[in-house]
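User: ok so my PI wants both of these folded by tonight, can you help

Assistant: No problem, let's get them done. Here's the first:
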Amino acid sequence: MTKRMAGMQPYFFPYLGYWQLIGAVDCFVLFDEAQYIKQGWVNRNRVLKQGGGWQYIQVPVARHPMEATIHDVRIAPDAEWQHRVLNKLAHYRSTAPHFAETMELVEACLLGSREHSIGALNCRVVRLVCEALSIRSEIIVSSEHGFDYAGVAEPGDWALAHALQLGATEIINPLNGISLQSPRKLAAHKIGLSALHPPTEVYGQGSAPFEPALSIIDVMMFNGMEGTRRLLAEPTLSRFDLSENNTYLAREAPETAG
């Protein structure tokens, strides 16, 4: 029986492709034991800016050691940050047909939160957005699962450790992360590999020129929950054969996930 697995760091309202990846697998690991990277996507994302272009929405984080994991980084004691995020979304009211339902979800994620770490907040966001978009994949938070990382020696070994301990038979990676995986190690454990291609969907964003790869918030604002579900149902996967000389041989025709 095939069991597909993927994993990513828990990001703050990530872009469409992140949710396509979750929907393409049976179990998805929120890898909050990874090192927190400053100015990445863990505490911020991009939405439209009033008048054109894009702007960041951001969660302030407290000072922390450079080697701190996402799980250990605390949200800064700032009582107004949620309202700053919501205020940056307020302009969508005049252009986005699904403003009300999207804001209701964002408010539930932020205003109802009692989480103190950025990792825990993002895990909450992932669960609530998955529920709203009818994504049924199992969500596993790595710091809560008790994974054994004794065999991890290089970047691709994290996903391999997760796959082996979850009984997965196939790992799905974003296309730009395929090079992290070791063909030799995957073949030795009889674990398959597929690549998820970046989303190419273009949707209306009012009268402004299209800004690609914005937060899922933007996607929902203009497409609603039902329209976003339709976009999520169209991921493109390419399966890879692990050759004898340890190179990837992609099949010529990408496969659409079922």
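One down. Here's the second:
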Amino acid sequence: MSDEKIKNETGVAGTTETEAAKAESKDRETEPIIRIRDLCFEYTDKKSRFGALDHIDLDVEKGEFVCILGASGCGKSTLLNVLAGLYKPGSGKVLVNGKKITGPGPDRAVVFQHYSLFPWLTCKGNVLFGLKSGKGKHKYSGKERKEKAMEYLKNVNLEQAADKYPDQLSGGMKQRVAVARALALESDILLMDEPFGAIDPRLRLELQELISALSVEKQKTVIFVTHDIDEAILLADRIVVMEPAKIRSVEEISFPHPRKRADLIRNGEYEKLRLKLTSAFYDQLQDSIGGEVVL
């Protein structure tokens, strides 16, 4: 085939169809793992409509940890539920790996605020559920599944509680089992909806540092919903600050991983960032309630 013919067919002199296909594949690989464009969502009933998301645009890169920060009712959990495939967008598009989300899928694991464990299964049984369902990337034998379940429990420091049932566990232990079960699904994306909100401060800090380390170790892309500014700074590569139905601002977090709260609070840049986020957070809260917020 002449260079001229190749140029006519592909638009690039000296480029074959195979090379063009490879270039297209490479372009897809460089696309963000999550792409949201002009997303709108409304809650409706027979008498009224409520716009929860209004023309949202957001890209998330592979391996990135993004915190969605905002007050109650701003739409952050709605956005997470759309990404999980639990809610269908009213308009706009939501893509994962270049494909439209049509419902829940094995490429996305979800950890909710409430533990959602199966009470009739042990800790190991709950983690095995994801592996037995066959939704992970790999097919394991029965022996391999048990070994993997114990590996994930060890990741969250719960191998000694493998044979205990959920009603024998503390709140922090239950949430660690939920995290282990989500990791066992071997999904590329981890969606977390205020998972540590109901846990006491000491355990919450332990779990925050644990999930930060695991997300790096397991190379997960994480979307983490929170209303806690300090939690967002500790965990995130980027913080998306939401006001009702919209994205107010996006902040890059440059502190290196792994992060420890004790180290951050001694950093002068941490306090500057915290004040900036506090101002944005409470300004939008003041706007939403139509009055002054006193800190």
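Residues 70 and 281 are 7 Å apart (CA to CA). Confidence is low (pLDDT under 50) at residues 4-15. Good luck tonight!
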